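Archive record:
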Amino acid sequence: MNENERKRFTTDNRKARNQAAGYHKAHAQYKKLLDKFAKPGYSILDDVATEILFDIGVENKNVIQLCCNNGREILSVKNLGTGRCVGVDQSEAFLEQTNELATAGNIECEFIQSDVYELPEN
């Protein structure tokens, strides 16, 4: 795939994901997710994933999640006691949801809107 094809592909993908974000937000599950994140320490991760992360030793470690969607996983990881957490997604609409979830849970996390092929250096 050449550079122009890749850019067209990612632009089309971003448009589709922005549209999908609207459907996600309109669904009753989104309101439930906001309510769950409002509870201190909430995690969407299952017991197996949580155990693996603790075995790896994520406490106070910096973590990045590419294609974070609405950020529920990276926010959950942050609630496990990690250090700096950054979520990256190309969809502005999904990143609006990440900020809403982070605000609901008073969770300090950074979110960056970027094409994964053009990530900023910092």
Q: What stands out?
A: The longest helix spans residues 3-26. Strands lie at 63-66, 85-89, 110-113. The chain has one domain: 3-117.
